[in-house]
Design brief:
Blueprint (H helix, E strand, L loop, with lengths): L12 H14 L13 E5 L11 H19 L3 E5 L1 E2 L3 H14 L4 H20 L2 H9 L9 E2 L3 H16 L3 E11 L4 E3 L4 E15 L8 E5 L10 E4 L13 E4 L4 E7 L11 E4 L5 H10 L25 H15 L2 E14 L7 E10 L1 H13 L4 E3 L3 H10 L4 E2 L1 E2 L9 E3 L6 E3 L15 E2 L3 E2 L1 H5 L2 H4 L8 H6 L2 E7 L3 H16 L4 E7 L2 E2 L16 H8 L1 H9 L8 E2 L2 H25 L13 H22 L3 H28 L4 H22 L4 H8 L24 H23 L8 E6 L3 H6 L1 H7 L2 E7 L9 E6 L2 E6 L6 H27 L1 H6 L2 H27 L3
Parallel strand pairs: 1-2, 3-4, 9-11, 15-23, 22-23, 24-25, 26-27
Antiparallel strand pairs: 5-6, 5-14, 7-8, 7-13, 9-12, 10-11, 14-16, 17-21, 18-19, 18-20, 26-29, 28-29
Helix pairs in contact: 1-21, 2-16, 3-4, 9-10, 9-14, 15-16, 16-17, 17-19, 17-20, 18-19, 18-20, 18-22, 19-20, 20-21, 25-27
Length: 877
Amino acid sequence: MSGFREMDKVYDPAQVEDRLYAAWERNGYFHAAPDPSRTPFTIVIPPPNITGQLHMGHALDNTMQDALIRFRRMQGFCALWMPGTDHASIATEVKIVEQLASEGLTKADVGREGFLERAWKWRETYGSRIVQQLKKLGSSCDWERERFTMDEGCSRAVVETFVDLYEKGLIYRGDRIINWCPDCRTALSDAEVEHEDSASHLWHIRYPAADGGEGVVVATTRPETMLGDTGVAVHPDDKRYAHLIGKTVILPLMDREIPVVADEYVDMEFGTGAVKMTPAHDPNDFEVGARHGLPILRVMDDGGVINGHGGKYAGLDRYEARKRIEEDLKALGLLVKKEEYTHAVGHCYRCSTVIEPIISKQWFVSMKQLAQKPIEAVRDGDIRFVPDRFSRVYFNWMENIRDWCISRQLWWGHRIPAWYCDGCGEVTVAKEAPQSCPKCGGPVRQDEDVLDTWFSSGLWPFSTMGWPEKTPELDYFYPTSVLVTGYDIIFFWVARMIVFGYAQMREKPFGDVLIHGIVRDELGRKMSKSLGNGIDPLEVIEKYGADALRFSLINGTSPGNDMRFSWARAEAARNFANKLWNAARFVLMNAGGDAHALNASALDMADKWILTRLNQLIAEVTAHMEKYDLGLAAQKLYDFIWSEYCDWYIEMAKARLYGEDERAKAAARAVLLHVLEAVMKLMHPIMPFITEEVYLHLPGAKETVMTAAWPETDPALSFEREAAQVAAAMDAIRAVRNIRAEMNVAPSVRARLILVTPDTEAFAALTPYIEKLAGASGVTVQSGKEGIGDNAVSLVCEGCEVFIPLEELIDIGKERERLQKEAARLEDEIGRARAKLDNPGFVSKAPAQVVEAERAKIEKFSQMLETVRERLDALKD
């Protein structure tokens, strides 16, 4: 694929990216197979939902993973990036239900089998969409190994894990308070509930004593649940209610006697110190109720509608019931007060409906025991969070973990492997479906529910490798090397993978967890449909190319921190890609099609400087990549390529390239090509397309940069002393450029430079570069200040002092005249401001900010006047 080909004048990503990606796939460059001679490096992709559309979060997450995989692949690791997609139970089911509704149908109309048939067809049609979008991004996943959480292998792993944990007593079925979404009509785990502060009310309701006394006043944020109250709790030390403990009060509206119990759970300082107990609709009430034997009475159905236990409120939506209950309490004189109150309210993470805590018979994983080893693994450093601060988030979740509700009232997903016998009540949990009840021989029916999506994705690091089979991939690639993910799914996914890794594999699932932030808009706001501030990564790719998108996402990011994205960032990245392309095109046009070997004896000081800086760059970029500081690696590459290589070294090399000295010309060509090839390799993990296209134009290039060896530092090409001398000369050139700009010297005006330095030999060797790049008419290097006239600008630089005869830069007479006029103007401005401040009427009547502005003027103009007078003093006759 290599050999001399003239590069296109303009780099067009649309003409390059799809062609290169197709070649990469066709040649199998992404595929990794167990190889005992090499060290494995493995990443499993956070599986995107089959309902998903590529967004900026995906783009950042996958660019980071791809950069790490490409980096390690070039370092010689056997690098596997395991791809796949998630079936996304709730999200996909919502799509199918919407599809049915558009046809005037419901789930019940088509039945479970018909529904699942539609779901699989939907997956076939749309499930690969996000995979194709990831390919547009340049993701070098091993697509030959692509997995799906409901494929045969992953499904077997799910059943194996469920049965194993059930047999160990770590999965059980029982009546517990769960989070219920009345819209999705399914249970949710704690991690799937998003809490938002909401403005609401606190209702204070009197519950009269059964003996005719005043009873108690309770405070509640959900008065509709009072229909299911079966008790009132007070603190045992609360003297206000000591006389009521063990007695009963009347539940308003329902006219039911309920007991008053004493429990230390009650906070005497909150509300009235008396708490209504609704064991079927509140997790804390459930625990208190269990301690005191309170009845459990559910008064709401799965749609959030009051059921038959709600008396005259039956059939009302929960919020309509709330209004009616408030009205009726007022009419009875039992609503003591209603006050505004803001508190955290749980919402469904999928549809944002307010969740309802409800008693329900569900399947649970007992988490306390399973969480112990994962906690120790992070605490002992066996698993490392990057940045480390996120380990505190992990510990807070794991150390306070509650049992995980894993059953979902859906049809799309892994059906729970449990069968019930209606004849004798036997429950059978098995890997294979029983033909009949093993206890009585009667017919059995399978549980209707499916498992939480996160159950299957928690097995992802090893189920994708073939577990429960003992495969070569599992033996070689597990545990994986690093997990790259956002901080928002530490609870959902990261913690559960660690739990299942130790539970099933007896080993950690990964060594490092690299956490990144979210992508915000240029104002720092979270991108959302409601704000209309989202940017479609595919639009960025279409306009500027995948490399520009990738670089703009990576450059300047740091682990764990959010980043801001804008079209301006993408445009700047595109401009950088063009700069790189133009530089490569210039080098290749001047180098021809032949490779040029570096000849140390032919190197001049500029060559030695850029080679030394390249060595330093290789060390820095490698270290940053290994520490996951991808943003710093990108910034180092940007600065080196744009400034040092393009703006400095190429300009330095031009004189030799266009000169007659063939030996010097060959040396410049060799260094230009050597550095260009190295930076293409270093930049490849971040900008894979343009670096591949440039690399394939290089003389002697291999078939792809992707499998080329990662650059290593070469002590033989490190010239610290010469590099420091060139850096000093560059400092002098910058100083001259700055003073010329400050004095408004036209580019056509050239002036003689006198460099005073103890290192005359080095600066003398660099005079051709200084003369050309500083716009000088000539350069004299000397060790003393003899022969320098009085009218000379002096610039103190690193390693030397530069003098420029002033008459060669400007017409001294005209400059003195100009400065005198400027001094007079400034004196007038100062005089006007002082006159205002000396006027008592102005100072007393003008706004304070106006007076302060006049004082600021005097200070500013006085400083300017001092500078002008110094200039005048320097202009001697």
